[in-house]
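ok trying this again, last paste got cut off
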Amino acid sequence: MTDNLFSTYNATKHLIDRGHKNVAFITFSSMQQQLTQRMQGYKNALKEYGLKPIIKEVVFNRDNDMILEPVRTFIKKRRGDIDAILFGTNHIGVCGLRVINELGIKVPEEMAVVSFDDYEVFELYTPPVSAIAQPIVEIADNIITTLLKKLNTPVKNKSVQTITLSTELHIRESSGAPKLVPVLK
């Protein structure tokens, strides 16, 4: 698995360091370990900076319209309250970008964006979207190696092995340039 908790902590911190103080987290409603860890990483970063979480959990559905509608409603309602959004998966990130486009919100001028799970489309979006990239090749290599070891080990050895891999935050234009804080004299 990847270090989901640190990854969203780091991405949230990145947005805060860019001057964003009202960072929303839009994700799927799920008790899956990776999604709960991503939520916790986001909350940990906000707590460290004394900021309040702004969370929208959406029920997963294969019909994108069932995802788009709650995301649309949330962004319309909170548009003036949030200055950045962290999407919990690339699927909800793509849906969120469709809504942002539809509403004519300027990225990153009006709202900065980062998504978990880098995706080719994010590089093609204008402006390119900052994203947390999982090490897909390394994940596959570890799974194959672990499975081969299990196949070659006697059945009595039923140990559980957890391998945690690091992600990489690909910073692109959607998360915005650092905002300059005026120096008071």
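PB: full thing came through this time. Residues 33-48 form the longest helix (16 residues).
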